[in-house]
Amino acid sequence: MPSSSRRPPGSAGVRPVVPQTSLRHIPRKRFGQHFLHDPGVVRKIVEAIAPAPEDAIVEIGPGEGVLTRPLLERAKRLDVIEIDRDLAAALPGDRIQVHVADALEFDYGVFPKGVRIVGNLPYNISTPLLFHLSRYADRVRDLHFMLQLEVVERMVAKPSTPAYGRLSVMLQTRFAMQKLFRVAPGAFRPPPKVESAVVRMVPLGSPLGCDEKVLEKVVREAFSARRKTLRNALSLDPEDYTELGIDAGLRPENLSPQDYLRIARRLARSDR
Fold it and tell me: Any residues with CB less than 8 A from the CB of 206 and at least 6 apart, and which?
């Protein structure tokens, strides 16, 4: 959240950073910028990531570089994705490769397999960005993000709980996730109106076993009618529920991520 990494029209490119004097950047509302400034929180994030010299690390939305600097103390080099040209120009050091780009459109496949992705994500684009990043689950080692607390709670929510929904299922079919710690609004400049949290995401390492688009369609249909029973929310035949061993009288929020994978695999086999 502390910086945005969405690209304004006409901005693109990759270049090494020329060290400049640190500036106190005026947060831009259109980028959803809230800059982390609490050294204790920064230290906890770096300790959670535990970067090693040989790690390939990508930071999304480095902002004023408050996390960038301690990461560079442990890693040999760093790739960063930043939309704000002024912030990109002020980033420190000659071991940074800056990608002036929109994180929502960026091709993370250009980085080596096993890349580690970190960042204080812009809260106004966090959900679509998480969906975009999930498509690269087979290429990343882990992801550590600062996000709005409510979003993190939805990410890690268990079935049959109020926070459990589409985001929970789509991420939990690809990642094991852990909420690490909460962060108060005062840790940012300017303080946001919500609490934040840091989450760790580790790819499960197993293929979905179904067409990703089929899974997305099933989950979207289910949670767009989450108050209905499955028989009224999904386009499955009665025999489908029998063979899957799923009670059609349940609601979408009662099924596990693995249940949704099984439904998607069955639909894919029947070409529906």
Answer: none
